[in-house]
# Entry
Amino acid sequence: MSDAIVHHVLATWGYYAVFAFSALEGFGLFFVPGETMLIAASIAAGVFARGAAHLEIVRVLVCAGCGAILGGNFSLWVGQKLGFPFFDRHGTT
# Structure
């Protein structure tokens, strides 16, 4: 991949990817690499600080925090709405 493509992808989808990976990991999908995405975006924000990507570390951290909080809250909501009816219908064993 050329540098222009990498810069374009990071500038376009960087914040969305950090938010999505953090939200999915916060939801409980443990195989989603949320921390790895956060580290990669932080490194990209530092390395490409003067380049074309324009990722800002504060925005990366805000996206990661919001994604993790919303993913955890959504997981709690799903558990409250679907958990008890599931166990009432199928039992705990």
